[in-house]
């Protein structure tokens, strides 16, 4: 029998790797204590859906400073187009990633050297709406003190399916069959150890770094929840006190948390919060994914697998439940006029979609006029405006910055900073 002898260096690397894997499994997936048997909920966390919720003040002047946390796979591209159009139409200043980067240092917090200098004469910014990790201390140092904060969430299981496809978790987990997502849910600890392994960093994670995963509480991560993958950050997934306080801070800071499943209801609230015109919140759906397990429904999946999913993503689940209920509480406080405005907005959107999706599409100078109502002055929608709603406007914004003589802020070499 041949005996494999490992060099001491190799031997200890193997020992360290196996130890790390064991710790991953023990810390992240250890059996729940009797105190943890019940899944997180608004009720057992003692949260109030009305906390910090007040009717929006009557509009006087449109608000131009806004932070939108662009949550992954939540319809955020469609929402971002709204903020891009608003800023472009008014010549406002955006916080943009430095050349060569796709995000504001996601999945790490923003650092000096990972965003461009302002093109505004005063050096300030108006709109921050690219992918980033929410950190109030850092963002408030970049953005004006009177900025409004908003984000968007999506029903967690629907979002999980989209993220599983978008981030290629079957590839990262080395799953090779026709039902990769169900295979993953059968044994999450096994596949998460593989996904988070430092050995996959260069070949499968690129800028995301070891310890990162798209399989657990992705919306919460984007909103600044400490899941332990970043250096010197403790994993708070099972810390009930931390979770409660983190959610309460979000309730206090965010003037509006939009819900993808109620997108038009959310946009009417956004218009009221920001004192914008109706035409500013028109939209066309962008970046819709197509994959073979998209139609899988909760009631068609083995209950054991769904229990695995819920326990592994319970922070996202309670996050969505809280702000979905908060959205309807906000709508209730807006009074009876809100229902009339929403009805008007939905009618306008039907006309806009019918116009923009004609075959062949309308020419740039073809227009349709939206008549005056209690909520808007009459305004035209042109074929060119349809293109702007349908296309990604980030390149248009960066083109303006390329002509700007101001240099990119570089406190250290940006390509040495982790992140995307």
From TrEMBL:
It is found in: Golgi apparatus membrane. Keywords: Glycoprotein, Golgi apparatus, Membrane, Signal-anchor, Transferase, Transmembrane, Transmembrane helix. It comes from the Eukaryota. Pfam families: Gal-3-0_sulfotr. The chain crosses the membrane at residues 9-28. InterPro entries: Gal-3-0_sulfotransfrase (IPR009729), P-loop_NTPase (IPR027417). One of its GO terms (molecular function) is galactosylceramide sulfotransferase activity. Belongs to the galactose-3-O-sulfotransferase family. This is Galactose-3-O-sulfotransferase 2-like. It comes from Ridgeia piscesae (Tubeworm). The lineage of its organism: Eukaryota, Metazoa, Spiralia, Lophotrochozoa, Annelida.
């Amino acid at each position: 029998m041949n005996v494999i002898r490992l060099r001491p260096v190799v031997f200890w690397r193997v020992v360290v790797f196996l130890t790390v894997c064991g710790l991953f499994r023990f810390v992240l997936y250890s059996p729940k204590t009797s105190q943890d048997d019940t899944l997180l909920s608004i009720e057992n966390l003692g949260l109030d859906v009305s906390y910090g919720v007040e009717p929006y003040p009557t509009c006087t002047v449109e608000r131009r400073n806004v932070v939108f946390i662009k949550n992954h796979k939540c319809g955020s591209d469609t929402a971002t187009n709204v903020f891009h159009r608003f800023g472009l139409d008014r010549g406002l200043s955006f916080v943009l990633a430095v050349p060569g980067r796709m995000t504001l240092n996601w999945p790490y917090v923003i650092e000096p050297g990972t965003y461009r200098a302002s093109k505004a004469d005063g050096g300030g910014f108006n709109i921050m709406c690219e992918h980033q990790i929410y950190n109030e201390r850092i963002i408030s140092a970049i953005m004006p003190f009177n900025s409004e904060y908003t984000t968007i969430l999506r029903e967690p299981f629907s979002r999980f399916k989209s993220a599983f496809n978008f981030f290629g978790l079957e590839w990262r987990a080395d799953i090779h069959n026709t039902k990769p997502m169900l295979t993953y849910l059968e044994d999450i600890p096994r596949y998460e150890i593989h996904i988070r392994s430092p050995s996959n960093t260069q070949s499968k994670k690129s800028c995301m770094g070891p310890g990162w995963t798209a399989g657990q509480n992705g919306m919460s991560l984007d909103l600044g929840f400490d899941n332990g993958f970043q250096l010197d950050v403790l994993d708070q997934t099972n810390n009930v006190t931390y979770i409660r306080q983190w959610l309460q801070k979000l309730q206090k800071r965010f003037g509006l948390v939009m819900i993808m499943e109620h997108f038009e209801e959310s946009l009417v609230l956004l218009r009221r919060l920001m004192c914008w015109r109706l035409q500013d919140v028109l939209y066309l759906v962008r970046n819709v994914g197509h994959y073979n397990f998209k139609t899988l429904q909760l009631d068609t999946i083995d209950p054991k697998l769904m229990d695995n999913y819920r326990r592994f993503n319970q922070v996202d689940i309670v996050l969505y439940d809280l702000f979905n209920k908060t959205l309807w509480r906000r709508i209730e406080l807006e009074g009876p006029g809100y229902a009339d405005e929403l009805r008007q907005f939905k009618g306008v959107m039907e006309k806009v979609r019918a116009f923009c999706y004609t075959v062949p599409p309308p020419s740039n100078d073809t227009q349709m006029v939206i008549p005056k109502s209690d909520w808007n002055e009459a305004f035209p929608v042109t074929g060119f405006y349809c293109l702007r709603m349908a296309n990604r406007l980030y390149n248009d914004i960066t083109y303006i910055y390329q002509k700007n003589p101001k240099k990119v802020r570089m406190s250290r070499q940006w390509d040495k900073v982790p992140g995307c």
